[in-house]
Design goal:
With about 220 residues, this protein is of the alpha/beta class. About 50% of the residues lie in helices and about 15% in strands. The model has no long low-confidence stretch (mean pLDDT about 95).
Length: about 220
């Protein structure tokens, strides 16, 4: 199954992407994670991307499309994949469809995670990430046993630079302007499913599993 996770920052796409990837044994491809890794290792692409990411703006389409097309060419995507945070503009969605058409493939379903803005803001500003293993926590919703220390590997936690309130507000604005039109794009194709991103992590996973099973995708 070839799945796109769509929705505003903080809707829970990354969290479900990880869980779904483990359960269905298909790769979770997050453009945000790939870009952050490039920033961390200081590649030329990472240095360019950082200037956009720190402001909560989108990285140029040509950069991101190239990353995804290369990643989808890897053999672990043959059984399917979960795209998280891509596409994010109409140009990206069209480029993805064109690339998939060439290999007689396509997206089976776009899952739209709907969430009220106040919950998204609360989740993002409270998120803490492990410096070493990248695990995500939340100061209230998913607290660690010891404050500031990762439960999984014991390393220190940090706040993503783009999770500060002013940048979060800009990311939500950018989402409304540039990404929301994709809801229409996938609705017209008849492959959009709306779910509540406000549900508890386990409850949302159950809803998603039921959707896949009803659609005979898994
Ligand atoms: P990216 O990393 O994709 O950020 P995002 O879409 O803004 O996604 P988030 O990770 O913030 O939100 P999410 O919906 O995944 O929620 P999560 O599960 O993490 O992109 C970062 C930047 O990279 C962009 O701003 C842009 O610059 C660039 N970029 C990336 N892709 C691009 C593209 N295609 N084109 C151009 N530029 C691109 O959860 C958030 C928090 O909530 C966590 O603390 C989590 O623990 C908590 N949480 C999650 N689910 C629940 C739940 N059900 N209940 C309670 N808490 C929950």
């Amino acid at each position: 199954m070839n799945i796109v996770l769509l929705g505003p920052p903080g809707a829970g796409k990354g969290t479900q992407g990880v869980v779904l990837s483990k359960s269905y044994n298909i790769p979770h491809i997050s453009t945000g994670d790939i870009l952050r890794e490039a920033v961390k290792t200081g590649t030329p692409m990472g240095k360019k991307a950082k200037t956009f990411m720190d402001k909560g703006e989108l990285v140029p389409d040509e950069v991101v499309v190239g990353i995804v097309v290369d990643r989808l060419a890897q053999s672990d995507t043959k059984k399917g994949y979960i795209l998280d945070g891509f596409p994010r503009t109409l140009k990206q969605a069209e480029a993805l469809d064109a690339a998939l058409e060439k290999i007689e493939s396509g997206i089976d379903m776009a899952l739209y995670f709907e969430i009220p803005e106040n919950i998204a803001i609360e989740r993002l500003t409270g998120r803490r990430v492990c410096k070493s293993c990248g695990a995500n926590f939340h100061i209230k919703n998913i607290p660690t046993k010891v404050e500031g220390i990762c439960d999984k590997c014991g390393a220190e936690l940090f706040q993503r630079p783009d999770d500060r309130l002013e940048t979060v507000k800009n990311r939500l604005k950018v989402y409304e302007l540039q990404t929301r039109p994709l809801i229409d794009y996938y609705t017209k194709k008849g492959i959009l499913k709306k779910v509540s991103g406000a549900l508890d992590v386990k409850d949302l996973f159950k809803v998603l599993s039921q959707i896949f099973s009803d659609a005979k995708l898994a």
